[in-house]
Design a protein that fits this description.
The protein is α+β, with helices and mostly antiparallel strands. The protein contains four helices and four strands.
């Protein structure tokens, strides 16, 4: 597999953004909780040119101007892992965990990825 060779040569995990799924978030006063509704999926490659042309407003740093493409590629965003890929493409966390357990599972996957990348280095 070419990606395995690439990982060994670079000693880093090269992650690729497949798509973006924005969420509508609102507070339901009757239920007393936050509503989170997925809106749509868009392939990252389809919008990458447009994102590269749009500048990001950064409140803490007005000296360095970056595009939305830079923001995503440099991982300057917060997110929660929603699933991990496998041969069957059936690993969405929401399919087997709910509530706080789904956040713990996302954190477990994140830690697993971090440890995998860390173990690629030789000391």
């Amino acid at each position: 597999m070419k990606s395995g060779i690439l990982i060994r040569k670079l000693s880093s995990l090269q992650v690729r953004i497949i798509g973006i799924e924005p969420y509508y978030m609102a507070f339901d006063e009757q239920a007393g909780r936050v509503l989170k509704k997925p809106l749509f999926w868009i392939k990252y490659d389809d919008v990458r040119d447009a994102l590269a042309k749009q500048e990001v407003y950064m409140t803490n740093n007005d000296a360095q101007r970056i595009s939305f493409d830079d923001l995503f590629m440099q991982r300057r965003f917060n997110g929660v892992i929603a699933g991990e890929s496998n041969v069957y493409n059936d690993r969405r966390i929401s399919q087997y965990e709910i509530g706080k357990a789904s956040l713990f599972e996302a954190e477990r996957i994140k830690t697993e990825l971090f440890n995998f990348e860390h173990d690629l280095w030789e000391y």
